Structure formats: C-alpha cells, structure tokens
Amino acid sequence: MKLKWATAAAVHLVALVILVRPEKGAAMWFNLPAGGTKCLSEQIYSGVLVLGEYFSFSGSDGSPAMTVQVKSPLGNILYEKDHVNNNVTAGRFSFTTTTEAAGLYVICFQSYRTSVNSTVSLDWKIGIFAKDWDSIATTEKIEGLELELRKLEEATKAIRQSTLNLMIKDVRMQRMSNKTNAKVVRYSLISLGVCILISALQVWQLKRFFRHKKLL
C-alpha cells in the first residue's frame, strides 16, 4: 500500500514539475535586408548565464556576408564575429552577466550583401535554459525525477531572483519619483516666491509713480 502511494505521489509530482516548469521558447526567425542592420535586445539581470546560437541563410550562394556583435548595457563588446570574408553561416556565444552590467543587452546583425536579403535564426537562451542539463545529469549522476526536481529548484531560484530584482527596481523608481517630486515642489516654491517678489516690486513701483504724479 505504501509503495503504491509513493508511486502515485511520484507520478503526481512529475506532472506538477512538467506543468510548472516553463518550456524553452523556439528560436526566432527574421529577415535581414541587404545592406541593412537589425538589432534585438533583451533585459537581463546580474549573475545570469546567457547562451546564444544563430544561423544565416542567404539564398543561392549561401554566403552570409554579415557581421554579428553583442554589447552589454555599458557598451562593452562581448562578442563580435565577421562573416563577410568566410562561408561560415552559424555562430555561438556565451557569457555571464555581472552585477554592474545588469540591463539591456543588444545583439546586432549587419548585412554587407548588395541585392539579396538574408534569413537569420537566433536562439537566445537565458538562465536555466542556457545550462547543459545532460552534462549536469552525467556529472552529478542524477536522472529522472531527481533531475526534474533540480530543474524546478533552479526555476524557482530564477523566479525568486527576478522578483527581487523587480522589487529593487521598483524601490529605485520610487526613490527617483520622490526626488523628482521634491525638486518640482522646490522649484514651484521658488517660482512662487519670485512671482510674489515681482508683484511686490510692481506695487511699490506703481505707488512711487502715483506719488510722484501726486495722484495719491
């Protein structure tokens, strides 16, 4: 009876893992116009593993004739590849974000073809999706339910970290909003004081004028 209950619990737990664990999105495809540039961006937090793979198809000759560049929010070039002078149609890059470089990461594809458009596939994996779970399972000798639980644990940590990052961002925005409101109030008081001063000077000037004309 206990064995049946444990088996049923394990089955339900596996089902829960499958339902809760987010699936990896498919690679995106887009057209790169001849002689044009297309950039894609992704908001990535600190301490996150990023893995990217791309593939280019350019019609008859198959030569991509393009350059690929990945930049951090600080403007540092994390990856740069020249596919103009070779027939390599695919590439791969990986990096881990640092604390000071959390923000918007940009990848740009620039075509050097003159007449034919290119079709580019980009698979941008972030966090737990960038990990090689087959290697982890082999190294740590885990499989089946234990491996799924490990993935769920990593997904939970990622969600928790994202929530904390959003809370920190919200606090920063709130502080910025409070500072802006304080500046607006201060400038409003200064403007009001200047208006009152100018009005008082105008009244004084009018009184002086009327007294000079002996109208008062």
Automatic annotation (TrEMBL):
Signal sequence segment: 1-27
Coiled-coil parts of chain: 135-162
InterPro entries: Emp24-like, GOLD_dom
Keyword Repressor: no
Keywords for this protein: Coiled coil, Membrane, Signal, Transmembrane, Transmembrane helix
Compartment annotation: Membrane
PROSITE patterns with a match to the protein in the record: GOLD (PS50866)
Membrane topology reported for the UniProt record: Single-pass type I membrane protein
Transmembrane spans: 184-204
Matching SMART domains: EMP24_GP25L
GO cellular component: membrane
Domain GOLD: 37-128
UniProt similarity note: Belongs to the EMP24/GP25L family.
Name of the featured protein: GOLD domain-containing protein
UniProt source species: Cuscuta australis
